[in-house]
UniProtKB/TrEMBL annotation:
Keywords: Signal. It comes from Pseudanabaena frigida. Residues 1-29 form the signal peptide. Pfam families: DUF2808 (PF10989). This is DUF2808 domain-containing protein. It comes from the Bacteria. InterPro entries: DUF2808 (IPR021256).
Amino acid sequence: MKYLTQLTVSALFMATSLSIVAVSNSAIAEELTSLSAKTGFIQVPSLISTDTSDRDPNTRNATYSFQISVPKEAGASLQKVTIAQKDPIEPINFASDRTTAYIQEPSGDRTTLETTTAIDPNTRDVSVIFTSPVAAGKTVIVGLRPVSNPSLEGEYVFGVTTFNNSQESQGQLIGYGRLGIYNTFFYGALAPTF
């Protein structure tokens, strides 16, 4: 009888545990469905890297590159990217007619993409719209050209938000890119040589 009671208690505990797991999985599935409905992505793109071709203050030839991966399981194409400077040390103005974008293939080949760039006059947020949406499973690199690098040295942070090709979807913030603007001659001269 003692063993039967232990077996019954164990079976009851196991059934309760399975019920909790089922409810948890259901809640996770519901949250993913809700996120998918809002953003249009089943799996959202990710910000892989952020870089600049020139870190010196006040230079005019820099390109700020944002590498974004659209996962194979995204469930939608990438139509638009919005890049917004966060808590700027100094606001940066971008040239809307000098934006570049291309698909980076695993082989190293690049396919240029046609884009339209819109800059919000109040917030200075830059929206890059792809003429042909970026398909799931691809990596895209967006290049923004500042009118000039800021004159103040420091770390500049940009929030990157992606939108799919559905008109009704909301954007999804996928990360923050950080660019260091420093006088490379000054810092290079003081760098240890050991």
